[in-house]
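Dear U.,

Please find below the material for section 3 of the report. The protein was modelled together with zinc ion; I have listed the sequence and SMILES used, followed by the predicted complex structure.
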Amino acid sequence: MNNQELKAFADAWHDGMLIAVIAMAAIALIIFLLYHLKVSLQRTYKEKHDYINTFEIKRYKLAFLFVGLAAGFLINMYGRDEIAWPGIAFFVRIFFGISGATMIIYISSLVLDYYYPTIVNRKLRRLRFAPRTSTTGGKMKLLSEDEEDVHLNEGMQAEENIFSIDYDVWIDPKTNEVKIEKYLGHLISLECNNCGFFTMRVKQEEVIEKNDDGSPKEILKHYQCAYCKNIRATQFTVNRKEAEDYKHIKPKPKNSSKNIELVKIDLRSNAGAKKSFEFSSVDEAKKFLDEFDFDKVG
Ligand SMILES: [Zn+2]
């Protein structure tokens, strides 16, 4: 190639990269904006919760894929006139472009997989426990159920692969209107006791005890952390109430304590001894205090 052809090639390459950068950045932005538009179109807190839980991390990952590509093309615009075909510098620049893109995509996916769930979780809890409004416009209260209780769908009772459900029962104290929301337990991420990320999810659930009629009574949930691979198993009682049952029993709401994550009790005896206890719910702490005898502990 003569000088003129080289110049033409460098210009064409530069223009092509510029178009690619703009296109990739635009796609990333569109994915991001469309996602947030979709979130805002979800009508209820519950629908928003489920939508964010299912799509936020996936969509952000996709958006960052295009951000990475945009950066890769951008790197290939460096040194427009100095780095022209043919030459080693040209291929080195391509290599740096690919590395840069890979790094952005890889790091963003790590952040979104492990660190970001903590932020999503905060958002999800805010949506899940935001006071609901009844059809008459009244403020509803969340019925606090035993935290250890889970529910199974009727069809699930006989299945091998069960996944339990949490019911959130909202009641309008004035009109007794009841609103029930179902949360699939295995789709909710919990905080890992080991690494502290919100990356703990149910891997498997098994029935460990049955009622006389063969229906599940106690189940064991096996959790695993996606980050540190720490495992945990917790036993739950299967509550046999179906969603419909809550509409007939007209339960009285208690003060909601469901949005409490940790209760810490510090006890000091008059002899100066000190003991600390942590509980995951107010009920557990109450039960503990009822039975408490300082001399008998530890
Ligand atoms: Zn962990």
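For the text of the report, you could mention the following: The CA atoms of residues 143 and 203 lie 28 Å apart.

Regards,
Y.
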